[in-house]
Amino acid sequence: LARIRCHGFSIQEVEAARKELLLDAETAYTERSKRKSDDLRDEYVGSFLLGEAVTDPVTEARINRLLLSDITREELGAFANQYQRSNGMVIQTVEPPHSLSLGKEDHEKLEAVVQKVIGMEKGEIKPHKDDESRMSPDDILREGDIGHAKPSFEHEVRSYPKLNAKEVTLSNGMRLCWKRSSLREDQLLIHAFARGGLSQAIRGVTSDPSEEEVRRMRTANVSSLFASDIGAFGFRPPVLNEALAGLRCHVGTRVRPFARVFEGEQSSGDFEVTLKLIHRLFSTRVQAVDSELGNIKQMVREAIQNQIRDPMTKYSQRVKSVNYNSFYFRPWTLPEFDAIDAKESCEFYSECFNHPGEFTLIVVGDIDEIAETDEGFLQLMEKYVGSIEVKDPARNVPLDKSEVVPIPFMQPKETVREIVREKLVDPLSITQVTFPLTITTMPVEVAQEELFWISFMCQLLEMQLMKEMRFQRGEVYSVSVGPSFAIESPSAIPSGKARGDVAINFSCEPGGVAEKLVNLAVDEVQRLRTHPVTKSDIDSLLEMEKRSYELAVEENNFWLEVIEMAYQSRKYKQTRSIDEAYMFRKKIREAVLADINPETMAVAFSKFFADTEKRVYTAITLEPQDSSPSMITRLLASISDCLSTKKVSTSTQQVVAGAVLAVGLGAAFAYLSSSRRHG
Question: Does the reported pTM lie above 0.90?
């Protein structure tokens, strides 16, 4: 604020802010037909409580364009000049719950900082850098930086009429698939994937790793953190963000356990800038300058330290540790991080996005706004993406599934119930109940069918738990059920079995409620094995699935995921056709849906969930540290549950109720006596 009062805003800062605000208004206008009801509700609430105007997206876009065009940097500077200490100022600090309040000495230090800044305003604060030193979108990739473009390259275009998609291999080996869609005006989605991720760093590790193997694994795990702070696209993040201000253009990267991904959502008008970023991603070797390495490593260290302290991260790690019993999920320690070589970590990340031929790039959306013909679209793709240099032809091919390094893990062999207590800001209890399961991977028809049955089983279980936990008992805030096979490597498929689990997640009031709900969830799974649900429940499930599917097919994201799943499937490996893979999956889904009834669903639950004597599950609950119910509370709750059962006679209930009253009064008098003795 002091710098702004002294020197105002730069021209480029004002323009960047103007573009961002205009972009928000234009995006709301473009997506006006997809506006959500809760957004409109919030506007009416703001109008009623605060007197805010309620406008439609068309009017709001016009008002924004009219007003924003006339605001000058001088007006902004004058407005910012009102924020003076003399006009009133509040300094708010956020401290951990267990820390001491600020004392007189702390207040004096804060006051000294304020006075120092006021004194510096007399001439010690330097102005902003000149606008000429700032980047523009054109600076991301100039014509001279594109040295291997082959715009006239002859492509063999393959069409997939079922998906209305087309595929080519670019001149550098990257596979490109695109689908023209008018579902969302001015929206383009990109998603690229390649096999092989973090697990490649633990090749050869099958049991407890050595210190060097742990260091190698940790080095890979933090590679994305280093890249995000240094700049994965060859520019420091603040500089690049300023250059992209006002553009709907984003490319994000992820290095997952078994895959590498870059993806994003773009405006059709900004798609060329997106392609420049993709080129930069592959042509940049992420390197830390020695003079900056200390600061960058300190920032990453603080991020790791926040993870170590974060209650939700600790809870998540404990859940994974219990369910997978793998060194891969061990919590971080700061000495482990200090042993990491930042340069080695950056090199691992750079190698993840180094060979374009390993990747399949999918583009779905309003491509007509970019190029009306496929020839024009491919020329653009060749110019920026096909021109990425092939550095090592031997490695410029997709990794086979058999080459993906598995993560060693073991599923639990006995039931585990555990409470994790942490200091939480909100008094909330979170629980995950996990049932390990195994599916058949051979033949592919059986594997796909089992996956669909498990998916629909989870939907039915979620419906039943929601009905019981929330609508009848009112004891949960939310509940969800879903399957996961994310920890099993693709290389495990030839073994004939793939390990996964079904997780039930819910949140509720702390203080012992979760324990009862865990019992309820486990009992509900058992009940669904032995007692078929009603036809009405099945009709509701099928109707919800139908409605969900109808909404999904109207989104570009759905088709992006469908195409990716087709490429990743074994059916594609057999047929080399994403149409065949798509129709194969679609037909099995329809066959399973047609076969669902109360009896077949009960059979499915019996197949994938063991009976009471053999069942194994884990239930890990996160509770606030001070939420443990007292002995009396637990006793009263247990007796209350007992009295509520129909098996207890009325006379017995009266006797027990009298005993409960006596115990309660005795405990109260004992507490009062103890209080008096201790003053």
Answer: no
